[in-house]
Write a structure and sequence with these properties.
Layout (H helix, E strand, L loop, with lengths): L1 H20 L8 H35 L4 H20 L4 H25 L1 E3 L2 E7 L2 E3 L5 H15 L7 H21 L3 H17 L4 H21 L1 H11 L10 H13 L24 H32 L5 H26 L16 H18 L4
Antiparallel strand pairs: 1-2, 2-3
Length: about 400
């Protein structure tokens, strides 16, 4: 038994070393690995559609007159997302690589004019109305900024250890993007992209001391930005003691924890949850996992987390067998996006992280978010098919 345990941990350590060094662990069948990922993604999407209806039906009935209002919109976006996913499987990645700078520049221009022409909701201007649907342009950073960074790092990998010739130019683009996100204002997304960027360039060989300098500068800036807006300070206080402002900044996290507590091991039953009855704000968006925990319980939520873990683990694993640096960057960057989003969303709903409006991939309500993640997955499958 002891030998089996040693072998198990030795295998896990080798996998982690493989991610860092780029070595190739044996894969039984890459095609089979990708099939498992697709099956799990599709299953999580179906779970998401079910709980979008479950968590939003009362809210939709009161404010839209149709209990299936949000479900119908999400299902429509799922159909669109699936067709775009299929199209992304056959798109020429080299063409995307050539157009990455122009595409990112165009998106930056859109983000720059968004505060003047965007739709305002919840005190922020992050959306553009197109054909009756609200589209969030910043979600497209998960496509355009990813492709740009994958291209840059693949071309200038040997210069990334140099602050001025390799690291700094990409850092300036990141700083511009974060500035535009802060103007919306969206501090949480800026934190997300800084975290993603630091992990991504570290994977490609950037020096730790350069990353440490950026981290220090960002921490100083964040302390200043948190103090600049009182509501952000209230969120931080509520993070440490939500009951200090139980009817204000701490309300969401308290209601979320109540949902977790009511769910117990096996949940109160599908459709029997009470927190969706106007107790938990954003129940069908950022806090949908709390509703799942209440109705299905700890066992089911651990099952869903396991599905995410398998998807992300296999994506990281597949990135090890790719020789082409650009395609490796797309695969690794996509996996990193999924990992950070799941970690942040679950961390917020559990009270482990300060409140930040970030949806749970594939499950939370949000058309742009769902479409972008299916496009990401399409690019992932496209980038990995050459080694099948």
């Amino acid at each position: 038994m002891r030998d089996k345990i040693k072998i198990f941990f030795a295998e896990k350590i080798n996998v982690v070393k493989g991610v860092v060094t780029g070595s190739r662990p044996p894969l039984k069948s890459l095609r089979q690995e990708r099939r498992v990922i697709f099956f799990l993604v599709f299953s999580l999407t179906l779970i998401g559609l079910l709980f979008v209806y479950e968590s939003s039906s009362f809210y939709a009935l009161r404010y839209q007159g149709d209990p299936a209002y949000f479900f119908k919109k999400q299902f429509l976006f799922f159909i669109i997302a699936f067709f775009l996913f299929y199209g992304a499987l056959f798109i020429n990645l080299d063409f995307l690589r050539q157009q990455s700078k122009k595409a990112l520049f165009a998106l930056i221009v859109v983000l720059a004019i968004l505060p003047f022409f965007g739709q305002k909701s919840g005190g922020a201007k992050r959306w553009i109305e197109l054909g009756g649907f609200n589209v969030q342009p910043s979600e497209l950073l998960k496509i355009f900024f990813l492709i740009y960074c994958a291209d840059y790092c693949s071309r200038k990998k040997i210069f990334l250890k140099n602050l001025y010739y390799g690291f700094l130019p990409m850092g300036i683009i990141l700083a511009l993007i974060c500035l535009l996100l802060l103007i919306q204002p969206d501090l949480g997304s800026a934190v997300f992209w800084i975290s993603w960027f630091l992990l991504f360039v570290y994977f490609f060989g950037a020096k730790i001391k350069h990353l440490a300098v950026i981290m220090f500068g960002c921490l100083v800036s964040f302390f200043f930005l948190i103090g600049l807006y009182p509501y952000r300070m209230r969120r931080i206080v509520a993070y440490f003691n939500p009951f200090a402002d139980a009817q204000g900044a701490g309300f969401q996290i308290i209601q979320s924890q109540i949902a977790y507590g009511r769910g117990g091991l096996f949940g109160v039953g599908l459709g029997q949850g009470s927190q969706k009855l106007f107790f938990l704000p954003a129940a069908h968006t950022d806090f949908i996992f709390s509703i799942i925990a209440e109705e299905l319980g700890l066992i089911a939520t651990l099952g869903i987390l396991s599905m995410f873990f398998v998807i992300i683990h296999k994506m990281f694993k597949i990135s090890q067998v790719i020789d082409d640096k650009f395609r490796k960057g797309i695969i690794f960057g996509s996996a990193l996006i999924f990992f950070l989003e799941v970690f942040i969303n679950i961390g917020v709903t559990c009270g482990l992280l300060p409140t930040k409006g970030m949806p749970l991939p594939l499950i939370s309500y949000g058309g742009t978010n769902l479409v972008v993640h299916y496009l990401l997955l399409g690019l992932f499958f496209n980038a990995s098919k050459k080694v099948s």
